[in-house]
Amino acid sequence: MTLLLWTLIAIQIVMGVFDTFYHHEFTERLAWRPSQRFELKLHGIRNMLYALLFLLLGWLEVYGVLALLIVAVLIAEIVITLMDFVEEDLSRKLPPSERINHTLLAINYGAILALLLPVLLEWAMQPFGVTVVYRGLLSIAATACAVGAALCGIRDFAAMRRLGRMRSVPANGLVDKLPGRKTVLITGATGFIGSRLAASLGGAGHHVIALIRTPAKAEMLPPPVTLITSLDQLAADTPIDAIVNLAGEPIGNGLWTEAKRAKIISSRIDMTGEVVKLIARLERKPEMLVSGSAIGWYGLWADQVLTESAKSHACFSHELCAAWERAARPAEELGVRVVNLRVGLVLGTEGGFVTRLLTPFEFGLGGPLGTGRQWMSWIERDDLIRLIAYVMATPDLAGPVNATAPIPVTNAKFTEELGRCLHRPAVFRIPGGLLRRVGGGFADELLLGGQRVLPNKALSRGFVFRHETLRSAFEAIL
């Protein structure tokens, strides 16, 4: 076996490790997506085959029919990879970096086969036998790679089994408080919250009109749903009973540079302005507008309890939310009931804050941020969907409404509960000074600051949370 062949194998290993940890674990988080159970099974089988190949090629030369068995393993890997490609296309949308990486892996694997198959066929022509060959560092490296591949395979199989145990709550039962058959327009319909809301409304027999900016994401929304890419596509005589405005640039996926801040604000203000313009030209006005906001409206208040009547402290989060709520206010002048939903940290395994914590916590690397004393006001995603439906069905509910569970927790308690639920320690504290140096205002407001928010309006109107405690929420989603 030549140096070129071992070099190509090393390149394949590096690209495979990058694909596994960057894509599968950290960005796509396949281990927590029930839709990816079969993909994880394919990954697990392939990793076990890789472990076998690394051990064989690192320590042995096999002859006769044994060499043909290695050829059979290589062919099986190709078949599994093709099945994996099909499964990925059917079950999820791959990011561009993953598609590029897969293409490079396929090309490099082809080059490996071109060099390896002649060697194996030559071995197959010889009498049956096995020779132990110690190749120094190459044999040691091959052993390490075999152990790593086997561990990844065990991880894939364990995650697959866990996903099989995770309970899935039917979406249509979340909006049972909404009577009749409503036509609801949703902006941000392919997002973490919007997609679940659309599925819930559609499953319950309501008519959903979903505004999507990227047509490729349309497959995320189960039928029945009417898809539009611009509000201008809606005629003036379109009957719409309610609008839920959730669209906006994510605030937690990058540092708050000046350009990022401007994009975060403009994406919300511009879309809300378009919604108001739509309402103005509709012949029959919708009954209500549920417009997004966040508990960042209150600013940073340390331990003070905050209800809808609380005042605000100036910071970027307040500036953003205040502008967002102001942009929705003209709809009131058009006779539409407006609710500004001040949403806390939304918990779920398909998106939101907690998904960024699952991988480090699962590997035992989680812990509090800074002092851990900052408050985290959270809400489980399905409770948020239920609250949106409840708000839509409650005519006397208007203005700001806190969308948080009744029992906020400190960051230390949050990390403790997450570690307990995953059966992992949560002791790796990240210093606040380090977070501030790296993240600036992003870290100050989203990671180290916090709000102790209570949902007074929802509770006073009789709304009942299914998950009042963090432990209940984690046990439901994890």
Commentary on this structure:
With 478 residues, the protein is an alpha/beta fold. It folds into two domains: 3-165, no CATH class; 171-477, NAD(P)-binding Rossmann-like Domain (Rossmann fold, 3-Layer(aba) Sandwich), CATH 3.40.50. Helices cover 52% and strands 12% of the residues. The protein has 16 helices and 15 strands. The chain has helices spanning 3-27, 37-59, 65-91, 96-124, 137-165, 192-203, 258-281, 316-328, 330-333, 355-362, 381-392, 411-422, 432-439, 441-448, 456-460, 470-477; strands at 60-63, 129-132, 183-187, 207-211, 226-228, 242-245, 288-294, 305-306, 337-343, 345-347, 375-376, 378-380, 399-403, 409-410, 452-453. The strands form five sheets. It has a seven-stranded parallel sheet with strand order 5-4-3-6-7-9-13, sandwiched between helices. The chain has a two-stranded antiparallel ribbon with strand order 1-2. The two termini are 47 Å apart.
Q: Treating each run of at least 4 consecutive H or I residues as one helix, how many helices?
A: 16
For the sheet with most strands, the description reads:
7 strands, parallel
How many individual β-strands? 15
Give the helix/strand class.
alpha/beta
Question: Which residues form runs of ≥5 with pLDDT under 50?
Answer: none
Q: Domain count, please report it.
A: 2
* Distance from first to last alpha carbon: 47 Å
Q: CATH-wise, what's the superfamily of the largest domain?
A: NAD(P)-binding Rossmann-like Domain
- Approximate shape: elongated
CATH topology of the largest domain: Rossmann fold
What value does the average pLDDT take? 93
How does CATH name the architecture of the largest domain? 3-Layer(aba) Sandwich
- Share of helical residues: 40-55%
- How are the strands ordered across the major sheet? 5-4-3-6-7-9-13
